[in-house]
Hints:
The protein is an alpha+beta fold. Helix content is 20%, strand content 47%. β7 (99-100) and β8 form a beta hairpin.
Amino acid sequence: xxxxxxxxxxxxxxxxxxxxxxxxxxxxxxxxxxxxxxxxxxxxxxxxxxxxxxxxxxxxxxxxxxxxxxxxxxxxxxxxxxxxxxxxxxxxxxxxxxxxxxxxxxxxxxxxxxxxxxxxxxxxxxxxxxxxxxxxxxxxxxxxxxxxxxxxx
Length: 153
């Protein structure tokens, strides 16, 4: 599901100007939200493991912006929005080890990460390297709360 599009639609309905400025294979990747440049990812929820997981192209870490908006849902409903400062998110990713997600001889490297609920704390862990982690509990919002946070940013 394209949760980033769902978030942008809801944000615009609540008077937060939110425009997708770049798409990759039809998926929103960058948006301007209340004048802030945001990297956007629709993250997938794994019900049995109680976690979100996704990958990010290593080249994206060279870009600059204000926030990373991770949009996740469950049962066809947008549920969790993680608003993480851009620099914090990408510095954490860079501490991991990029993984080739294609079968050889093709190559496409991504930083793979997951966000898991651990007894009420949401922890983001990056695959590889020293397996860096950050607590993103305070970055987790319901849709309306995330919209209000971006309005105040």
